[in-house]
Specification:
The chain has 19 helices and 19 strands. By secondary structure, it is an alpha/beta fold. Helix 6 packs across helix 11, helix 7 crosses helix 13 and helix 14 crosses helix 19.
Length: about 500
């Protein structure tokens, strides 16, 4: 069944990212996709799991309660409204496999973290080495932030970088890494000898490696950057647990076997976005995760449990540093960015609909080069071990200024109520704008409740004081390079009015 098979979950995630849509048509598995999106490898995997997906569709449609991943209901009526209803149902009911549903308190999530501590030593002694690190293990290297982290490691160190990659074979894995670097204008031929592809999967035991391979890594690796995660705001906790929680447990096993290795864990400020927050509250870097609030949605829940897991390990002596990025946006100079993060999709919706939801919120944008450079610099400072860092823009601005920034670029957008914007967005079908499909449930969390939350980053700013790294203020100029990238790569139509110089 799809609900319980991590291989199929990973396949569906990659198909979603590629814009491929699946549905069942009288017992036949149908699909539609952008030109070139369904690669031969994806076709092969889809054929391999075809029968299991069809069976799941049939079983899900016969159930009295919704399944956590009942995609058929959405694809039979592919509108954003039906997707939003499906997501709400799936989060409400959860799955039989795990009791964590749409809402979970930190007390409930704490039990999930404690359960994963079984193989972590109860006490660890770590003695920092003055020697340069020669071998680095990096997860999530093919993601947006991960590509830039890989580039910084290649540029700022002499280390060999072992990259965990999902791929059918080594050549495909190497090509995937090189293609990602090339797509962002970062590839250099000299990197080839220093990138070692490790075929595996965070969702599998031992990261998908054989015991011999895993043991070899425990003896070879000097430092770990754990940036990988399955990111999907529609999936329940049970669907994300294997990759995000159990995968982090395996990373801790790697960090504590044979020799103790510093672990630099990339989390998210979302671990604090819960019911305990109040208007205008300030969240500090050293605030406890045990805030007693309720977290909604599988992604934030899984990241909370994973961060709590590494926090408990650090209390046992494991050398851990935690980095919590906010909204990671395009490169501050080139504008190169992801087109699938929630802010990029919000901007696209504003331009397509000529309206922007009026949220009682602040706009936070942290350029990817600021985040990646900060992580690498901080990770090289001995004083950073056992510390927490908020990688957010220290100069946020009111949300409504986003409309002004878009107007300055030539896009005329009007502010509307969140309800009006929701109604407009829900009329778009997946066929006309499939990239907006996951936006509605994400922005709903911004459209209700307390939104004027500030994340203090004094620790980060102080630790970066002796470097040349700083985060540029949010402005029309900062957004302009990203909007230009969108236009040049056909993510957005060109503005109809003249650009403001």
């Amino acid at each position: 069944m799809v609900d319980h098979n991590p291989d199929i979950l990973n396949l569906l995630e990659r198909l979603t990212q590629a814009g491929v849509t699946l549905w069942s048509d009288n017992g036949q598995l149908r699909f539609r996709s952008p030109k070139g999106a369904l690669t031969p490898d994806l076709k092969k995997e889809l054929q391999q799991h075809k029968q299991a997906i069809l069976i799941s569709f049939e079983q899900n449609s016969a159930r009295d309660t919704p399944s956590s991943l009942n995609l058929s209901g959405f694809y039979q009526k592919p509108t954003l409204e039906s997707l939003n209803q499906l997501i709400s149902q799936s989060l409400k009911y959860g799955t039989e496999k795990n009791a964590i549903g749409a809402a979970a308190t930190t007390e409930e999530l704490l039990q999930e973290a404690i359960a994963e501590l079984q193989n972590i030593p109860s006490s660890v002694t770590f003695t920092p080495s003055k020697e340069d690190f020669k071998a680095v293990f990096l997860t999530g290297a093919t993601g947006f932030l991960g590509v830039y982290l890989l580039h910084e490691l290649l540029e700022q160190t002499q280390a060999v970088i072992y990259c965990l990659v999902r791929a059918p074979n080594l050549n495909a894995g190497q090509d995937r890494l090189q293609t990602k670097l090339s797509n962002y204008g970062l590839w250099q031929d000299k990197y080839k000898s220093r990138i070692i592809t490790v075929l595996g999967d965070l969702a599998d035991p031992l990261l998908g490696l054989s015991p011999a391979q895993f043991q070899h890594l425990t003896q070879t690796i000097d430092i770990i950057y754990h940036n990988g995660a399955l990111v999907n705001f529609a999936y329940p906790y049970s669907a994300l647990k294997s990759a995000n929680v159990s995968g982090t447990r395996e990373i801790l096993t790697l960090a504590t076997t044979h020799k103790i290795k510093p672990l630099h864990y990339i989390s998210t400020i979302g671990v604090f976005l819960s019911s305990h927050l109040t208007d205008n509250q300030i969240v500090y870097e050293q605030d406890s995760l045990d805030h007693g609030g309720t977290l909604y949605g599988g992604y934030s829940q899984s990241k909370w449990v994973a961060e709590k897991l590494v926090t408990l390990a650090s209390e046992r002596g494991v050398p851990v540093s935690i980095y919590r990025p906010g909204t990671i946006t395009g490169h501050s100079q080139t504008g190169i960015c992801s087109t699938q993060d929630w802010l990029s999709l919000t901007i696209k919706s504003a331009i397509l609909l000529k309206t922007l939801p009026a949220l009682d919120a602040v706009l936070e944008m942290s350029p990817v080069d600021y985040v990646s450079r900060s992580i690498l610099y901080l990770s090289q400072q001995p004083t950073s071990l056992y510390q927490r860092f908020h990688l957010v823009n220290p100069h946020p601005c009111p949300w409504h200024q986003l409309a002004d920034f878009l107007s300055a670029f030539g896009y005329q957008t009007q502010l509307s109520s969140f309800e009006q914007w929701t109604q407009q967005l829900s009329t778009y079908t997946v066929e006309s704008s499939d990239s907006l499909a996951g936006l509605l449930p994400i922005l709903q969390s911004h459209g209700s409740g307390s939104s004027q939350i500030r994340f203090n980053s004094d620790n980060t700013i102080q630790a970066l004081a002796k470097s040349e790294i700083s985060c540029p203020p949010i402005s029309a100029q900062l957004l302009r390079s990203q909007l230009s990238y969108f236009v040049n790569h056909d993510f957005l139509p060109a503005p109809t009015t003249s650009l403001v110089n």
